[in-house]
Amino acid sequence: MMQIRNELTMLRYRSNNAYACPVVIRAPIGGYLRGGSLYHSQSGESIFAHCPGLRIVFPSTAADAAGLLRTAIRCEDPVLFLEHKHLYRQTYNSEPYPGADYTLPFAKAALRREGTDITVITWGALVQSAMVAAKQAQEEGTEVLVLDLRTIAPYDWNSIVRSVETTNRVVIAHEDQLTCGFGAELAARIASELFEHLDAPVKRVASLDCPVAYSPILEKEILPQASDILCAIREIARY
C-alpha cells in the first residue's frame, strides 16, 4: 500500500513531471463468493481513491474490461485495475470480443438503462444488482436510470450531472462499506453542487461496516443485494 501511495503515485510530482510512471496493477477484488470471508471478499476502492495521481478502473463487463485495460496499458500514470472475482464466474456480463484495437476512455460512464424517475449510480458487481432492481421497480411503475461509472478516478461527473437533472432522485450503490465509501464522496458532491435539482435526499446502499463473514447466510446479510437497492428506490420514490 505505501509503495503505491508514496512511490508510484508521487513519481511525477517528486520529479517535477520529469518522469512518468506507466504501471498497471491488476487486482482481484470483491465478494459474493460464498465463503470468501475477510481475506477474499473485501472491497477497498475508496482507500485508493485518496491517492492523488492514481487512476482507478472498475469494469462490470468483459468488453469494458478489454477496452479499459488497453487504455490503462497505454496510460503514462499508474493505474489500479480492479477485477471483481464474482464477475469472473458470470455469463450475463459476457459479450463478443470487441477486437484487438478496442479501447475505452477513462471518466466515461456507461448508461446501462434509461429512466426518468430515479438514478442509480453504481459500478462493479453492483451494476447487475441495480439492473435487477430497476426491472422490478419498473413493474411497480418507477423508471430507473442505471449509470455504471466504470472508473473511480477519474470519474464521469458530467454524466452524473445529466442523470440527476433528468431524474431529480439519486441512489448510490456500491459493495464497499457504507462509512467513508466512495459513494459518500459522490453523495456529498451531488448535494453540494446539484442541490437545486434534488427532490429527495441522496440515498446510499452499501455493505455493513464489518468484515465479510464465512457463512453464506451472513455474507448475504452483510453485502448489498438487489433487494436492498430496490428498497432504496422505493423509499426515494415515496419521498
TrEMBL record:
Cofactor(s) essential for the protein: thiamine diphosphate
Keyword match Oxidoreductase: yes
Pfam family, one: Transketolase_C
Keyword terms: Oxidoreductase, Thiamine pyrophosphate
GO molecular function, one term: oxidoreductase activity
Oxidoreductase recorded as keyword: yes
Residue span, Transketolase C-terminal domain: 108-229
Protein name: Transketolase-like pyrimidine-binding domain-containing protein
Phylogenetic lineage: unclassified sequences, metagenomes, ecological metagenomes
